[in-house]
């Protein structure tokens, strides 16, 4: 490799090249592994998230998704309900209030659903000793039934069936995606 020298106050210094001793082409340095890297071997042996990680993941994802969807629909509703005689400040206030109210409401509702689902799924994994489609389907069924239990047994049964089917479809879709779509 060519070395570059520079003079500074009667002293010769060489510019530092961090790749000079590697004896590999520089483009090979950036071929990063696609498999997960773990610091400890016991982390690599885990097949699923812990109950705390599950709780944070499902609750946070559900709340954030609900808040974004609710804020978007509330903003659009506020834009539609704006009256022609309103000032710009009044229109802006109506849009912001509508978006904030709908975002909070849907975010909180979906966050509670995520919290219940995470607790039930982690409990099923603990009691059954394995992580599979059955755990997610039962957790979805239980989540729907618990969420709508106050509306009566018929409503709880329908919501439970919808929750179980949705959870099973989501897990089956995720497994199919992993199998057939190279990432």
From TrEMBL:
Task: Tell me if Transmembrane is a UniProt keyword of this record.
Answer: yes
Any one GO CC term of this protein is: TIM23 mitochondrial import inner membrane translocase complex
The positions making up the signal sequence are: none
Presence of the UniProt keyword Transmembrane helix in the record? yes
Membrane topology summary: Multi-pass membrane protein
- Compartments, as annotated in UniProt: Membrane
GO molecular function term, any single one: protein transmembrane transporter activity
Q: Which InterPro entries match?
A: Tim23-like
Q: Name one Pfam family in it.
A: Tim17
One GO term of the biological process aspect: protein import into mitochondrial matrix
- The main location class comes to membrane
| Alphabetical UniProt keywords | Membrane, Transmembrane, Transmembrane helix
Q: Which PANTHER family match?
A: MITOCHONDRIAL IMPORT INNER MEMBRANE TRANSLOCASE SUBUNIT TIM23-3, TIM23
Q: What is this protein called?
A: Uncharacterized protein
């Amino acid at each position: 490799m060519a070395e570059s020298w520079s003079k500074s106050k009667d002293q010769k210094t060489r510019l530092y090249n961090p790749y000079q001793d590697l004896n590999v082409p520089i483009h090979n340095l950036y071929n990063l592994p696609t498999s997960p890297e773990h610091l400890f071997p016991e982390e690599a042996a885990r097949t699923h998230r812990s109950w705390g990680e599950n709780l944070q993941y499902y609750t946070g994802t559900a709340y954030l998704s609900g808040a974004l969807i609710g804020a978007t629909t509330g903003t659009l509703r506020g834009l539609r309900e704006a009256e022609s005689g309103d000032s710009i400040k009044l229109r802006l206030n109506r849009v912001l209030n509508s978006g904030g109210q709908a975002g909070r409401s849907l975010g909180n509702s979906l966050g509670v659903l995520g919290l219940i689902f995470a607790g039930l799924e982690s409990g099923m994994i603990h009691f059954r000793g394995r992580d599979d489609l059955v755990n997610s389907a039962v957790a979805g069924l239980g989540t729907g039934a618990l969420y709508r239990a106050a509306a009566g047994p018929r409503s709880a049964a329908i919501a439970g069936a919808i929750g179980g089917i949705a959870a099973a479809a989501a897990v089956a879709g995720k497994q199919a995606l992993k199998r057939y779509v190279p990432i």
